[in-house]
Design a protein that fits this description.
The protein is built from 24 helices and 17 strands. It is an alpha+beta fold. It folds into 4 domains: 2-131 and 628-647, Orthogonal Bundle (GROEL, domain 1); 134-153 and 445-618, no CATH class; 154-240, no CATH class; 242-277 and 287-409, GroEL (3-Layer(bba) Sandwich). It has a 6-stranded mixed sheet, with helices on both faces. α3 (63-79) crosses α15 (420-441) and α4 (83-102) crosses α19 (510-522). It is elongated and about 95 Å long.
């Protein structure tokens, strides 16, 4: 292992690296953003406007760049959205931190000491920003953003399954359309949004919260979708039941007239039988003719015994009416021959994900002892037949009487695209949309921090059971008009909070500076959204701020929290939620719709995703600025250079 010289890492180095990533993703950011063309060493071209896909495709040499991409990838994997905004906001924050750090009074004139002082000042400022966000950001979003949005729920995409177009005016449909516009463009976003709404409707479990269904789809997405290349995306559709991405190893002779019974084997049937039976010992060394003949006779007897054992298992399967055998392993030729004679279809080499999904949907238990097959091992299927999707033939199964057991209607998603790259891009966008909706509908713990602490402290002296503060303060599922509305609203809330803090708390003079810095950084996002028309940026900002002044309550802060405390004292003894009435006043819909004052309709975006994005960016800033030294290492056998791919 070779070792490179030590590299001191200063603020300007971090800023330069992040700005280079910003220049890459900026080309595809916003409603007017285009796709990025990657040309690989194999001359293969890849088009994409997904921020995560673009960033992870880069060949990055600098460890800081790789660290940033790792942070983006983790955030995008968790929430399904925000990778490009992550980079842009990160670059804007670092630029403002650099500017503020350079103005520190203790920065000396010596070059080396000045860089060190700037980096130290930047670290202190980043720590203050993160501390402020962890303590105050949820309050600011709850009080300054939530009242201007509205809540989506599972009812927004339930209804007539045969007519998914009924959701065209619903909030979830607009949320998905906005998401797909920035990932796949305008052309097919309505079609794809309708398709995913229909998918979620089929998988809706009546007695469970929607988050469980969404989590199930996300966890099993590799087994729930089938990519098909060579067709337009409008050929994508849902098919009943499950598509197993293998073909029949023995002929399929089933009809759809009657139910089909199937069993699942996790290993090779013959190997399991041999392991459970006798072991044939074969010695080594010289043998006389008599010994060789005895060994040959022993082998023949063993083969006959193994064949009889296989025939016994096949007879057990026939007695139970089983006509389909699903296997994770490849079966021997003897097993396939006997199954063919018994008219039993065999599907082998099924992936672990697909077999796990089949077991969950069918309710059957995999067979562990081949000679002890019980009724709980048998799955009843409505049909089991081949299906041709593109150039491949797969196995298509549907589950019998599943509605009574699971109260869902299982279906699989067929995703079509002109080429393999486009098909994969559509599939990634589908799964990211599921993650985004899941993040939107799940509560993220955005509570009024100070009020919560005070009420909990008060409740400790009066009752042993604390009230459900999180549910009272903020329900999940809030969305806000897209196109920079979230940033405009939070910018205004932060400026007001900074002014109030400077008046009410003269001891901490850092709060106004921190809020102003973060508020200014937030405006960089709508500035880039409206970069093609700066006039629209100014008009939108003016209209939103005017709307806030004309249609909202005064910004609630200390007075609001005092009212919460008074309400808590009056209701703790009655075991009622002390914030219920205040929640209604805080989250009530405004008299006019904020989206009506916007110049352009970009759809909706998730408040929860934005909240998590801000926290992730601030945590990334703090982590980057804490790095002091880069120690580069390389292997002695590593000769291939790392470089960025050609980007057109």
């Amino acid at each position: 292992m070779g070792m490179m010289p030590v590299e001191r890492l200063h603020l300007k180095h971090v800023l330069q690296t992040v700005c280079a990533l910003e220049a890459v993703v900026l080309r595809s950011f916003g409603p007017e953003g285009g796709q990025v063309l990657f040309i690989r060493d194999t001359t293969e071209a890849m088009l994409s406007c997904s921020g995560t896909r673009i960033l992870t495709a880069l060949r990055l040499e600098h460890p800081v760049a790789r660290m940033v991409v790792e942070c983006v990838w983790k955030h995008s994997t968790a929430t399904g959205d925000g990778s490009k905004t992550f980079i842009l906001l990160l670059a804007s924050l670092l630029r403002m931190i650099h500017t503020a750090a350079c103005k520190e009074p203790n920065v000396s004139c010596t070059y080396n000491s000045r860089e060190a002082a700037e980096t130290a000042a930047a670290r202190r400022l980043a720590d203050k920003l993160l501390a402020f966000a962890l303590e105050e950001l949820d309050d600011l979003i709850t009080m300054g953003v939530i009242p201007y949005g509205h809540c989506v729920s599972w009812k927004d995409f339930t209804g007539n399954i045969q007519s998914p177009a009924h959701t065209s005016n619903h909030s979830l449909q607009r949320l998905l359309v906005s998401f797909f516009q920035t990932r796949l463009g305008y052309t097919h976003c309505d079609f794809i949004s309708n398709l995913i709404c229909e998918l979620l409707t089929y998988w809706r479990c009546k007695n469970n919260p929607p988050s469980l269904s969404l989590q199930f789809i996300n966890d099993n997405f590799p087994a729930l979708h089938t990519p098909v290349s060579g067709f337009p995306v409008t050929c994508s559709r849902l098919v009943e039941g499950q598509v197993i991405h293998r073909d029949f190893s023995t002929p399929c002779s089933h009809t759809d007239c009657e139910p089909v019974k199937a069993v699942v084997f996790t290993g090779c049937l013959q190997s399991k039988l041999l392991n459970a039976g006798e072991v044939l010992e074969v010695g080594y060394g010289k043998r006389v003719v008599g010994e060789n003949s005895r060994m040959e006779r022993s082998i023949l007897e063993f083969s006959a015994w193994a064949e009889r054992l296989l025939e016994r298992v096949i007879a057990i399967l026939q007695s139970l009416g089983i006509s389909v055998l699903l296997s994770a392993a490849k079966q021997s030729a003897a097993v396939l021959a006997l199954a063919r004679q018994a008219n039993i279809c065999v599907v082998e080499c099924i992936s672990e994900d697909e077999l796990s999904l089949f077991i969950q949907l069918s309710g059957a238990t995999p067979v562990s002892d081949c000679l002890m097959i019980e009724p709980e091992h048998v799955a009843t299927l409505t049909f089991c037949r081949p299906i041709l999707l593109g150039a491949h033939r797969y196995v298509h199964v549907a589950f019998h009487d599943l509605e009574e057991r699971a109260r869902v209607t299982p279906c699989s998603l067929v995703i079509c695209g002109p080429g393999e790259g486009q098909t994969d891009q559509y599939a990634c966008a589908f799964q990211d949309a599921i993650r985004m909706v899941l993040t939107t509908l799940e509560p993220v713990g955005m509570t009024a921090t100070t009020a919560s602490k005070e009420i909990l402290q008060l409740h400790k002296t009066t009752s042993s059971t604390p009230p459900p503060l999180q549910q009272c303060l903020l329900e999940s599922g809030y969305v806000i008009p897209a196109g920079g509305t979230f940033e405009f609203l939070l910018h205004h809330a932060m400026l007001q909070h900074g002014c109030e803090s400077s008046v009410c708390d003269n001891t901490n003079m850092d709060i106004p500076a921190v809020t102003q810095l973060l508020a200014k950084a937030l405006l960089s996002i709508p500035q880039k959204i409206y970069s093609h028309s700066p006039r629209h940026f100014l008009e939108t900002q003016t209209r939103i701020f005017s709307f806030i002044l004309n249609h909202s309550h005064p910004f609630p802060s200390l007075v609001y929290k005092q009212e919460l405390n008074t309400s808590a004292k009056q209701s703790c003894d009655t075991n009622e939620c002390p914030l219920e009435e205040n929640k209604q006043s805080m989250h009530c819909c405004t008299k006019a719709d904020l989206s009506q004052v916007l110049i352009l309709d970009f759809g909706l975006e998730s408040v929860s995703c934005k909240y998590q994005l801000l926290l992730a960016v601030l945590q990334c800033v703090t982590s980057l600025l804490r790095v002091d030294t880069v120690l580069c290492t390389h292997s002695a056998s590593q000769t291939k250079s790392h470089r960025l791919p050609d980007i057109s």
